[in-house]
């Protein structure tokens, strides 16, 4: 899709953005807008919801029905929108801390319900806006402001968490794989149910500098060198998988969607009056 085709989806008067040089958030947002454009969605029937964090500033830059909510609550607000207006396409743009830490409970229950939301996680493995604290996706031994001698905690596999909770679609990509990314977002939007996209992105200012990747290109090389597509992944041993991660469509299993079930229940209750 030509670059000029997405300009109508941007609030140009809100630019330039506040993201740091080398941040991958713009690549992720561009992929989301390309997917919306490819699907030719009605701009007035798209809602974009975000929480708090660097990535959550995205909602302010796009010209849809937008909602910038409190920390960790983006999925909860999005659930309310979808229940009130099931005809709308509701997309959540969130960070790994916003989604999986304070918002973790909302994530697992929205996935459990299989409500028709598309959640795109800007996963930079750090709290970038508030000083570089470790997040639920910071890998063991990685350095963070709150883990100066190395992180001791295990990290969530967010796609596996969403799948195990009941999501009917889960995928992962990176900002290096910029051609693949909008295709996965497009499939997530098309899925009638809870769609979860884990996007590995870069924060060179905090995560990169503290973990020997001081330049944005270093972080892109990390993504390139450590990502494995699902076909490769399936043939690798556990030892070979160490330090690597799988990308692509990881789970696609259609299931009854919550707002459809809710509408059917209301219809039955009306008939029984």
TrEMBL record:
Superkingdom of the organism of origin: Bacteria
One Gene Ontology term from the biological process aspect of the record: cellular respiration
GO molecular function: oxidoreductase activity, acting on the aldehyde or oxo group of donors, iron-sulfur protein as acceptor; thiamine pyrophosphate binding
Keyword terms, alphabetized: Oxidoreductase
Domain Thiamine pyrophosphate enzyme TPP-binding residues, every copy: 52-199
Name of this chain's protein: 2-oxoacid:ferredoxin oxidoreductase subunit beta
KW DNA repair (keyword) present: no
Keyword Oxidoreductase on entry: yes
Source organism per UniProt: candidate division WOR-1 bacterium RIFCSPHIGHO2_01_FULL_53_15
């Amino acid at each position: 899709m030509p670059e000029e085709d997405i300009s109508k989806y941007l609030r140009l008067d809100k630019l330039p953005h506040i993201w740091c040089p080398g941040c991958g958030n713009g690549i992720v947002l561009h992929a989301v807008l390309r997917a919306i454009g490819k699907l030719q969605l009605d701009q007035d029937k798209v809602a974009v919801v975000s929480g708090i964090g660097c990535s959550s500033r995205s909602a302010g830059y796009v010209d849809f029905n937008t909602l910038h909510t409190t920390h960790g609550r983006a999925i909860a607000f999005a659930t309310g929108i979808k229940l009130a207006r099931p005809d709308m396409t509701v997309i959540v743009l969130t960070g790994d801390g916003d989604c999986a830490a304070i918002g973790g409970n909302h994530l697992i229950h929205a996935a459990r319900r299989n409500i028709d939301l598309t959640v795109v996680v800007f996963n930079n493995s750090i709290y970038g806006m508030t000083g570089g604290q470790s997040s639920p996706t910071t890998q063991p031994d990685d350095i963070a402001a709150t883990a100066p001698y190395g992180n001791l905690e295990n990290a969530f596999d967010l796609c596996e968490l969403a799948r195990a909770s009941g999501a009917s679609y889960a995928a992962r990509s990176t900002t290096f794989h910029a051609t693949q990314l909008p295709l996965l977002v497009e499939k997530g939007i098309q899925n009638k149910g809870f769609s979860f996209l884990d996007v590995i992105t870069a924060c060179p200012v905090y995560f990169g500098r503290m973990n020997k990747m001081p330049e944005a290109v270093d972080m892109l090389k990390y993504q390139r060198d450590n990502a494995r597509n699902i076909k490769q992944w399936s043939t690798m041993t556990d030892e070979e998988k160490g330090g690597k991660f799988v990308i692509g469509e990881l789970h696609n299993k259609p299931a009854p969607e919550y707002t459809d079930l809710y509408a059917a229940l209301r219809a039955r209750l009306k008939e029984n009056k």
